[in-house]
Amino acid sequence: MNRALNFNAGPAALPEAVLKEAEKNWLNINGSNMAIMELSHRSKEYDAIHNKAIALLRKLLSIPENYEVLFIQGGASLQFSMVPMNLLLEGSTANYISTGSWSEKALKEAVKVGKAAAISSSKGENFKFIPQFDASAVTEDASYLHITSNNTIYGTQWQKFPVLENVPLIADMSSDILSRPINVENFDLIYAGAQKNLGPSGVTVVIMKKDLLERSNDSLPTMLNYNTYAKNNSLYNTPPTLAIYLLSLVLEWAEQQGGVEVIEKINNEKSDVLYQAIDESEGFYIGHAENTSRSKMNVTFNLKDEETSKKFLQKAKEAGFIGLNGHRSIGGCRASIYNAVPMEHVYQLAEFMKSFRKGN
Ligand code: PMP
C-alpha cells in the first residue's frame, strides 16, 4: 500500500506498523473476541492496556515515581484552563512566556481564572524566536511559569529550558513530546494532546509532580480536578479507550525504534534535510523561524510573494504532498515532520522543493 505523503500538523501521520497492528487486532483484542472499543473499561483486558501505556510512557521518558501520569480528555486546550484552576493560588500570579498562538490561548484562559501575565513575548516580531529566558523577569509572587516547548504554528522550539528554583515549571509539549530526551525532573507539570507524536486525538497526557496535587481545591468540579484522575488511575469515568490503546501501540513502536535518543537523531536528520533545502535556496524559500529557535517538528517557510507560495502549494498538492499549508492564522507553508513521518517522505519533499525552485 502506498502511504500518503502526510505532513499534517495534527492529527498527523501515525506509524504504519501501529496501524497494521491495530488492524490485526480490530475484531479480537487479546483473545477476547471483542474489539477494543467493546471492552468494559473496568475489565482486566482493558486494565492491562491502560497500565501498559502508562508504564511505557514512564520508561520512555524516565518519569520518576513522584510524578503522576494522567489521561484526560478535552485536548491540550482544556489544560489551558485546568492548569490555572488547579495551580494558580490566590494572591499570586501565573507567569507565561508567550511564544505563539497556543501560549497566548493558554494565557487567555488563565486570566479568566485569576491573576496571570506574560513576562516575556516575541509577539512584536511575529513569534520568530524563543526569547532569551531571564529568571529575574519571573514575578516574586509567581504561582508557576508556563511555557510552550514547541510552537506548532510558528515553527519555533525551546532549545534549552528555563531552570527555576522555587517556581513550578509547566510546559505544553503537545507538538514535541517524545521527539527528544527531556529531564522530567526539571518540570512540575507537562501536558500534551496525543494527536501529533503520541497517537490519535481524544486523549491528553498529563505528567505532574505529586506534590502539586495539594494545590487543587476540593471545590473544583470533579472532572476538572487533577486529584480525580490521580486517585483513580485516570479511571474515575470512562476514558477514551480506543485512543489509549493506540497510544500504547505508538509507545511500543517508539521503544522498538530505540527510544527517544534514537528518535531524536532521526528527527535531527529529517529537519536538517528541510532546513538545508531552505538555506541552499538563496532566498527562494524564506524560513520563518530564526536559526537558533528552529523547530525540528514544524518547518515553516514562505516564498517571495503570496502568488509564488500559492503556486508552490498547488504544485505540491498535485505531486501528492498533504498538509503543507501554513496554519490558517498565518498562511505560508509548513511541513510537520513528527516522529512517524518517514525519512523517505522528507527526502521526497526536499527533492520537490529543489525541483520547484529550478523551474521557478
Ligand atoms: N498546544 C499546542 C502546542 C498545539 O499545537 C495545539 C494543537 N495544535 C494545542 C495546544 C491545542 O490542542 P488541542 O486541539 O488538543 O486542544
Architecture overview:
By secondary structure, the protein is of the alpha/beta class. It folds into two domains: 17-257, Aspartate Aminotransferase, domain 2, CATH 3.40.640; 259-359, Aspartate Aminotransferase, domain 1. 35% of the residues lie in helices and 17% in strands. It has nine helices and 14 strands. The protein has helices at 16-24, 44-60, 75-87, 101-113, 226-231, 241-257, 260-279, 306-318, 343-359, and strands at residues 5-6, 67-72, 93-98, 116-121, 142-148, 150-151, 156-157, 169-172, 189-193, 204-209, 285-287, 298-303, 321-322, 333-336. The strands form four sheets. A seven-stranded mixed β-sheet has the order 2-10-9-8-5-3-4, with helices on both faces. It has a three-stranded antiparallel β-sheet with strand order 11-12-14. Strand 3 (93-98), helix 4 (101-113) and strand 4 form a beta-alpha-beta unit. The longest helix is centred in the last third of the chain and has 20 residues, at 260-279. The radius of gyration is 21 Å and the shape is globular. It starts with a strand and ends with a helix. The mean pLDDT is 97. Residues 10, 75-77, 102, 148, 152, 172, 174-175, 193 line the site of 4'-deoxy-4'-aminopyridoxal-5'-phosphate.
